[in-house]
Structures are given as structure tokens and as C-alpha cells.
Specification:
It contains 29 helices and 20 strands. By secondary structure, it is of the alpha/beta class. α2 runs antiparallel to α3 and α24 packs parallel to α25. The radius of gyration is 26 Å and the shape is globular. The protein starts with a helix and ends with a helix.
Length: 772
């Protein structure tokens, strides 16, 4: 096919779409089901209607091929585990008894059975459930979900393409199951898994699928020759099948690198590549591989992870370059649109001019359709769209919001000394122990306490004017009193105020910093039914006035025990926002760090002796390629130190990280120079404690003993067992006792019981320590 005919054939498609519905109908239905207020049939009906609405909207917008299978009640990797029959032994009875309840038990656990481990999906803020595989794992195909959703879409008269997690990525995401050898490599199960994928593909073809998409984002990471050979073998075998749809293998989030020629030569009919995060690298590698003669190329030229409008002219130029490299070029977002909110038009509180800079899922879909039309019919067919796009890009670039000379001058004046504590850790630790007077194995929590229905109602009432500020603040004071009183009675050593005034750990600060925009309806799935509204980091950042001092000092006035000041760190403020794309991330991080430095110093001046600056996103934002990591970690750790290094030696600086693989960043954790770090560890059985010990981490650490992402209450003995495991790696004088993460999403009954057990466990294990 010539370039001209390739252009004429261009079509618009997407890999996936937000699942929740415009009013988070799915979240409400699932949580209603968990509480017994919604039947299983009603939940399934809500889910089916949401899927139909999405497909119809996509088709009406001009998308030629809609995705199926991307919808999920909880997580698409968990759906894949069900599809291939890799149900952990401890969950099989529950799944056999009721497939839906068993599915949710794997995700959330029960009082008697622990859930699957949860961690971040590559470098996004989406969490997936980690498959557990072992030498004895037997795979069996279960295509009910995939076939049913394809059938639903086809019944609407639509062209549909099932989207599945690819077999290589699935195995690379997995961990050894409990009881499996620690060095077991799930990828060794590939030959056992491929026949199951063959059965799935055959069932999809029988159901009417012309194409099926297999997502292999793990191949954009550094891969060994053995792993690349496994990918080659997988797609050689799948490509050789006769009873299957055409195969589109998709990668995203970074450059495909050495895996590109492997996939380009595979006997599959198409590739989908990211031309936003790694446009130049993927384009160069594609050309070097000789292109994709006779194959389909789906070009992800619209950023599926950020919310800024596309530069349409630039994307058309990229698409034009690709025309000579494939038999057919289609247009898509760089990845699933799961990672962005639904519709920018729903935002009523953002200036209309600024709103034109933003593209959520609906607007990105329109961009994809425009680009496909421009590619197929020429730029004359989209003249109006291109003109409006140029004007909006110019408006953003020239806006005073994006450039504050005072902020830039302060950031430029930072020196190396500004990012270093005045004394080494050993001297600081002595001063802190003398000042705080804490016991061995001190207990604390991570920050937030349950956000009750009453709190949410009070916040809504304040927004709508049903109560005034004074009434709202009285409610906050009452909540803080109750939280502090509970902690004192329970025997927790270092208290928190519970954060009742905070809607979200990033949004709360973003609403008080210049340069940020807040949305009202910009919900994005973090995990399961947990949705967040990432703020938009639109311009230069500064702090007009203190943000947390008032409520922290109020809490401290209620108790003689230390109360932690609680802040969100600069890297997390970037990672959990939609960050600006018009300057280096390190520059933005430095601006946020300076704003937080002012807050840290004000907390100390107000008498706060323990200050926690959370950085759960430090690992999450780690670049997928090792070659890109040193530069990132340099500015990320500097930003944390810049925010925390202006305090006295006797002020104890804490940080917190959760739900990520920490082994890759232990040196960076060390480089933060925090006095105490708390980390998720309950589901991974204290793995991070062993990693810290192996590194020789010299400071204090609190690997979590209470998994807060499950409703189950850990017993005191269970928590004590985890503490004993932690003590094998971290000496008692440096070991803290705490939950995995904040308690915002938990209910009060389980929180009370769990924290009482946590404190009891600490007392028990303290009593087992040798006398000094």
C-alpha cells in the first residue's frame, strides 16, 4: 500500500476508557453491593449500562473501533488472573462458591483470608493486584467476561476489538506465590500459559472478533535477552495459530527499544506504539527495523496520561512521517484513557479560557478523531480545528499564570547547602531521643483517620452554603478532639490530628498554593472503588500563607504527647497531579519544595517537634528505563531535602511510602536523609525491612504491620509476628510500629480494633526484648 492509500485508510481508536461513569455510578454500585444494599444482578446491570454508554459515545464521536474487555469491577490484571485461572489456593473455595464474591475477596481480602498484594501499574498512580504464581500453577481458560463484553458491543452494531493484558507482561508482573521458592521466575510458565491464550483467542474469534489487542507495556522496560527471547517465542507461537483474530500488540509509557525489532518481525498483523513519551526513539527504532511492511501501525500521538491539549499540527507531522513505515496507520491515544478524567466540559469553576487548554477523555477522543480525519483527508479537512488549537496553545504559553518571576528567581538562588541538614543523623537522633522520650518500638499512624459520612456531609454543606465557616470549623475541632482522645486512650506514642479538614493529600495543598487548579469532577481511578481528583499544576508555585499550622497546633494543645505535622512531599505533589509539560519536572519540583520548606519551618516555629513529609510516589515516578533514573533521583531527592533541611537537629523528620516496589530505590530512600521512614510491608511480609537491612540503611524505619487496604482486622498476634520478622532486619532502637498507610478509607470500628491490636502487639514484643 502506498503512503497515500495508507493515509486514506486511517481510522480512530482507543485502547480503553474511564470505567466509573459520569457520576461514579460504578463506585456507588460496587460499594452498595459490598454493604448489601445492591444485588449482584443490579450491579451487573449498572456495569452493562456503563459499558454500552461508553461504546455509544465513542462511536458517536467518530471512533471507528471501540475497545472491549478494558472494563473492570476492580482491576484489569485481576481480570486476567481470572481469565487464565490462576486463582490462589486460599481463594479457590470462595471463587467456586460465588465468582463475584470470590473476585472481590482476591482484591480486598476477608477477615480470614488475605488479599493479593497491590502495587503501582508501571509509573502511573493506578494500582493493580499482583498475580501469585508458582511451579505448581495450572492455567485454565475462562473467557466468560471477554466474550460477553465483545458480544455486547457487537450487538450494538459496532466494530469492536477485545483488549487483553499480554502473556509476557502478565508473567513479568507476577510474583512467586506463598510457598514457592523465592527465586522462582513466573516467566518460566510461559509455555504453560500460551495454550490458554490460544483458547481465549479462539473463543474471541468465534464470538466475532476481527482483531484482538494484547498489551505488552512491560517490554518498554529494560529486558534481558532471555525475556526478549520469551517475547519472541510468545508471539511466534500465537502468530502461528490459525484459529484466532488478527493480533495487535500494544506497548506504551516509554520507548520499546530492543523489543521493537522482536515484535516488528513477529507474525502478528499490527503494532501499537507510544509516540508521546518516546516519539523520537520509537520513530527512529521503527525506521531502523525497516518499518512494518504489510502490517497495521496504531500511532499513540495523543497523551493518554496528562490533560493538556494536543499540538495537532505537531501530531499530524509525526503521523505523516509514519505513513511510509506501515501498510496502514491508525490514530490513538498513547495508552488507555483510564488515566484521565471523563469530560473537561463538566468543570464550571475553571476560567473558560484556561478550560480550553485542558483535554480529558472526551476531548482526547475528539482530538484522535480530528487527527485521523486530517491524516485521511488532508489538513484542509480540519482547518478550523487546527486554527482553534493554535490559538489555545498560544494562550497558554503567553499566560501570566505560567510565569511568576519572583518564584523563578527564588528557585534559581537555591544552593547545595539549602538541601542539607545542619548535623549528621547520629547527632540528630540523640537530640531527638532526648527531646521526645519515646519507648522502644514507638507506635504511630501514618496521618489520616477515617473520613466519616458526617465529615463528608459537613464539607458538602460548606460548599453549598448550608453551614457557614464557623459551623464547619467547629465540626473539624470536634473530630480532632475525638481522634486525639482515642489515640491517647489506645496508647499510641506519636499522635496525628487525623486530617479531617483534608479532602485529599494532594488536592488539599494544591487548593492553597498558587499555580494549581482544582477540578470538581476530574475523578480518576486509583484502585478498586478509590477515585481521586488530581489537581492541575498549571503554573509557577508559591505558598501565600500557612496551610497546616492552625490545625496541627490545635491538636497539640489537646495532649502532652507529640503530634506530627503532616505534609505531602514535592515529588508526590507532582506525581498525583496533572503536571505542567512546558518545563522540566525538576524545575517544578524545586518550586513545590520551596513552598513546602516555608510550611515546615512555620510548623517548627509553632512548636511541632515531629514533621512527616510523605513521598509515596517517589518509587512510582521512577523512570521505566534504568538509564533515565539517575537524573530523576537526583532532582527528586534534592527536592525532598530542600523541603525538610531548614529545621533544627532536634526536630524529627519523617517520610512515608506505600504500595510500590522499594528495592530499586533503597539508595534514594537513604539519600532523602529523613530521620524516620514508614513503608508498606504487611502484604509483602516485611520484604522492605529485609531490603533496608541488606542496604545497610542507618536510620529509623516503620515497616507497616496493618494492611489498611483490606477491611480485615489483623489480630495482635499477627501484628506481633510481623514485628518479630521486622526485628530480624532492623534493631529495636530503630524500629517503629505503624500501619501501612493512612486510614482515611477505613471505617471506625475496624480502625479502633486494628490500632488497639497494633499497640498490644508493640507492648508484647517490647516485653520480649532483652533488658538493656
Amino acid at each position: 500500500m502506498t503512503s497515500k492509500s495508507a493515509a486514506a485508510a486511517a481510522r480512530a481508536t482507543v485502547y480503553g476508557y474511564p470505567r466509573q461513569g459520569h457520576n461514579r455510578e460504578l463506585k456507588k454500585a460496587i460499594e452498595g453491593y459490598w454493604k448489601g444494599r445492591v444485588t449482584a444482578d443490579a450491579l451487573r446491570s449498572t456495569a452493562a449500562e456503563l459499558r454500552r454508554n461508553t461504546w455509544r459515545q465513542l462511536a458517536a464521536a467518530g471512533v471507528h473501533e471501540v475497545p472491549t474487555g478494558d472494563f473492570s469491577y476492580y482491576d484489569h490484571v485481576l481480570d486476567t488472573t481470572v481469565m487464565v485461572g490462576a486463582i490462589p489456593e486460599r481463594h479457590r473455595d470462595a471463587v467456586d462458591a460465588d465468582a463475584l464474591d470470590g473476585y472481590f475477596a482476591m482484591a480486598r481480602g476477608t477477615q480470614d483470608v488475605a488479599p493479593l498484594e497491590m502495587t503501582k501499574w508501571f509509573d502511573t498512580n493506578y494500582h493493580y493486584l499482583v498475580p501469585e504464581l508458582g511451579p505448581d500453577t495450572v492455567f485454565t481458560a475462562n473467557t466468560v467476561k471477554q466474550v460477553a463484553e465483545l458480544t455486547e458491543a457487537l450487538a450494538l452494531g459496532l466494530t469492536a476489538r477485545p483488549v487483553l493484558v499480554g502473556p509476557v507482561t502478565y508473567l513479568l508482573l507476577a510474583k512467586p506465590a506463598p510457598g514457592a521458592p523465592a527465586d522462582f521466575e513466573p516467566l518460566t510458565l510461559l509455555d504453560r500459559l500460551l495454550p490458554v491464550y490460544a483458547e481465549v483467542l479462539a473463543d474471541l474469534r468465534a464470538a466475532g472478533a476481527e482483531w484482538a489487542q494484547l498489551d505488552e507495556p512491560a517490554l518498554v522496560q529494560d529486558r534481558t535477552p532471555a525475556e526478549l527471547n520469551a517475547a519472541e517465542r510468545a508471539y511466534r507461537d500465537l502468530g502461528a495459530l490459525t484459529d484466532r483474530p488478527k493480533l495487535l500488540v500494544a506497548s506504551y509509557f516509554d520507548r520499546l527499544g530492543d523489543a521493537l525489532p522482536v515484535l516488528a518481525k513477529a507474525p502478528v498483523e499490527g503494532l501499537a506504539l507510544d509516540f508521546t513519551e518516546a516519539a523520537a526513539a520509537n520513530l527512529e527504532a521503527l525506521a531502523a527495523a525497516g518499518g512494518l511492511p504489510g502490517k497495521r501501525l496504531v500511532a499513540g500521538v495523543v497523551n493518554g496520561r496528562n490533560i493538556w491539549i494536543n499540538d495537532l499540527q505537531k501530531s499530524l507531522s509525526t503521523l505523516g512521517t509514519l505513513l511510509g513505515l506501515a501498510d496502514r496507520v491508525d490514530v490513538a491515544a498513547s495508552c488507555s484513557l483510564l488515566h484521565v478524567p471523563l469530560d473537561a466540559a463538566a468543570e464550571r469553576d475553571i476560567d473558560p479560557q484556561i478550560l480550553r487548554w485542558l483535554a480529558f477523555a472526551k476531548q482526547k477522543t475528539a482530538e484522535i478523531v480530528t487527527l485521523a480525519k486530517g491524516l485521511a483527508q488532508g489538513t484542509d479537512a480540519v482547518t478550523g480545528e487546527l486554527s482553534a488549537n493554535r490559538a489555545d496553545l498560544a494562550s497558554r504559553a503567553g499566560s501570566p499564570i505560567t510565569n511568576d518571576p519572583a518564584v523563578r528567581a527564588r528557585a534559581a538562588a537555591v544552593t547545595d547547602a539549602d538541601a542539607r541538614r545542619s548535623q549528621p543523623y547520629a547527632e540528630r537522633a540523640a537530640a531527638q531521643r532526648a527531646g521526645l522520650g519515646l519507648p522502644l518500638l514507638p507506635t504511630t499512624t501514618i496521618g489520616s483517620f477515617p473520613q466519616t459520612a458526617e465529615l463528608r456531609v459537613a464539607r458538602a454543606d460548606l460548599r453549598t452554603g448550608r453551614i457557614d465557616t464557623a459551623g464547619y470549623e467547629e465540626r473539624i475541632r470536634t473530630e480532632i478532639q475525638e481522634v486525639v482522645s482515642f489515640q491517647e486512650k489506645t496508647g499510641i506514642d506519636v499522635l496525628v490530628h487525623g486530617e479531617p479538614e483534608r479532602n485529599d493529600m494532594v488536592q488539599y495543598f494544591a487548593e492553597q498554593l498558587t499555580g494549581y487548579l482544582a477540578t470538581q469532577h476530574g475523578w480518576v481511578q486509583s484502585y478498586g472503588t478509590r477515585y481521586v481528583r488530581p489537581p492541575v499544576l498549571a503554573g509557577d508555585i508559591s505558598r501565600p500563607e500557612p496551610m497546616t499550622v492552625r490545625w496541627t497546633t490545635y491538636a497539640q494543645s489537646l495532649t502532652d504527647r507529640p503530634v506530627k505535622g503532616m505534609l505531602t512531599g514535592p515529588v508526590t505533589m507532582l506525581a498525583w497531579s496533572f503536571v505542567r509539560d512546558d518545563q522540566p519536572l525538576g524545575d517544578t519540583a524545586r518550586q513545590v519544595a520551596l513552598a513546602l520548606r516555608d510550611e515546615v519551618n512555620d510548623l517548627e516555629t509553632a512548636g511541632t517537634s515531629v514533621i512527616q513529609v510523605d513521598e509515596p510516589a517517589l518509587r512510582e515516578t521512577l523512570p521505566l528505563r534504568a538509564a533515565d533514573r539517575p537524573a530523576y533521583l537526583a532532582w527528586a531527592t534534592e527536592a525532598f531535602r530542600l523541603s525538610t533541611s531548614g529545621v533544627r537537629p532536634d526536630t524529627q523528620i519523617h517520610t512515608h511510602m506505600c504500595y510500590a516496589e522499594f528495592g530499586d530505590i533503597v539508595q534514594a530512600i537513604d539519600d532523602l536523609d529523613a530521620d524516620v521512614i514508614s513503608l508498606e510491608a504487611a502484604r509483602s511480609h516485611m520484604q522492605v525491612a529485609r531490603e533496608l537491612a541488606s542496604h545497610g540503611y542507618p536510620r529509623e524505619a516503620g515497616p507497616g504491620v496493618y494492611d489498611i487496604h483490606s477491611p480485615r482486622v489483623p489480630s495482635a498476634e499477627e501484628a506481633a509476628g510481623l514485628l518479630r520478622t521486622g526485628l530480624k532486619a532492623i534493631p529495636a532502637e530503630r524500629l517503629w510500629v505503624n500501619p501501612d498507610c493512612g486510614l482515611k478509607t477505613r471505617g471506625w470500628p475496624e480502625t479502633r480494633a486494628s490500632l488497639e491490636n497494633l499497640v498490644a502487639a508493640a507492648r508484647t514484643v517490647r516485653g520480649e526484648l532483652p533488658a538493656s
